[in-house]
Amino acid sequence: MKIGEVQHIAISVSNMEEALKFYVDLLGLEVMMDMELEGDPAIESLLGVKNIKMRYVLFTGKGARLNLLGFKNQKGENIAKRMRPYDHGIHHIAFIVDNVEDAYKELGSKGVEFISAPQQTGLAKAATMRGPDGVVIELFELPME
């Protein structure tokens, strides 16, 4: 068996409209598919959830695509806001940007909560922020080649 590249990352959100404002209006992602799923046996089996009713949004993009899941008849718990950097689970999602300083200023002026200002790391320049439901998002500027 050979594992290939990451195909998508799915985030369960408490409020789809707020999440779309963040990912579409602020980050500029484009919606590729927005659909309602209800009682789909295959999806229920894959997710391990019975009587599923949810909104599913898929964004366009290169590499791994981001999916948002908005469950309508199951209430989830917000664990991302409680996670500490050393807790176990998915830590963050990183998006490549052309200029992290510019992205930091633009998003900060629109009220985005940043965890850190842009920092030069050994690999690149990056800043971290919180998205809807507390998901940590890294803005990652690759070094010039």
Automatic annotation (TrEMBL):
VOC domain boundaries: 5-142
Pfam families assigned: Glyoxalase (PF00903)
Cited InterPro entries: Glyas_Bleomycin-R_OHBP_Dase, Glyas_Fos-R_dOase_dom, MMCE/EMCE_epimerase, VOC_core
Keywords for the protein's UniProt record, in alphabetical order: Metal-binding
Family annotation (Gene3D superfamilies): 2,3-Dihydroxybiphenyl 1,2-Dioxygenase, domain 1
Superkingdom of the organism of origin: Bacteria
Alphabetized GO MF terms: metal ion binding; methylmalonyl-CoA epimerase activity
SUPFAM superfamilies given in the database record: Glyoxalase/Bleomycin resistance protein/Dihydroxybiphenyl dioxygenase
Record GO biological process: L-methylmalonyl-CoA metabolic process
PANTHER family found in the cross-reference section: METHYLMALONYL-COA EPIMERASE (PTHR43048), METHYLMALONYL-COA EPIMERASE, MITOCHONDRIAL (PTHR43048:SF3)
Name this protein carries in UniProt: VOC family protein
Organism: Candidatus Abyssobacteria bacterium SURF_17
